[in-house]
Amino acid sequence: MSPSADPPNRSGPPELLAGLTLTVARPMVLLRLGYRRANQVPARTAELLDTIVEQGSELLAPRAICVHCPIDEPQAGQVAIGEVLTTSSRTLADGLDGCREGWLFAATLGPAVDAWIERLSAAGEMTRTLLADAWGSAAAIQLGLDIEMLLSRRLRAAGLVPGRRCAPGYGDWDLSAQRPLLRHLEADRIGITLSEDGMMAPLKSVSGVIGGRGEAATTQATADAPGDPNSS
Questions:
Q1: What ranges make up the beta strands (E) of 50-97?
Q2: CATH architecture of 15-224
Q3: 14 φψ region: left (φ > 0), alpha (ψ -120 to 50), beta (else)
Q4: By CB atoms within 10 Å of each CB, which of 30, 126, 161, 199 scores lowest?
Q5: Contact call for residues 230 and 18 (beta carbons, < 8 A)
């Protein structure tokens, strides 16, 4: 990170995001099931999936919370997200390269979706369980994308270029970072808790950080990035 301006000194208060709605694209669900095209899906499976989508959609209760935070590089090879955490994760450093501020967030579909999938499994409805789990995962992914788009718009409105979203447990950013991140977000306000091994409950929940960088930092990051090995 080599931004020129000093970062903001403190994080803002956590903000509940109200009025969330969610539309889950069918191709995203099919990809979770291993199908690349709709015509690959057996007719009976397609019929069952229609039922699953209808039932699951009635259970959706998406909630999200976010907080604005400064981003800094206290020393070479480290990234600090406000007073939340400091890490040497290369994944996070790359994702936040050039950023001096950003947004932390957590979001969940709500407990009803998890409970529904568990009931299907307990009843031995393995095909329905598989379909419901795939639909729920696709819905959680879509919710994360929707929140990322919302926060990206805020960064652009502030004259910043959004970076890519990073999340604990991906790349070399250890899952243990989930605990301080969710504590700072006060994620329990939207019903998210953590197990001892750092897994979120409800399971169909997502979290992450997205930073914003100035155009000069973006230009430098692009110049420093390796070329596409597939390009000629």
A1: 63-72, 79-81, 85-87
A2: 3-Layer(aba) Sandwich (3.40)
A3: beta
A4: 126
A5: no
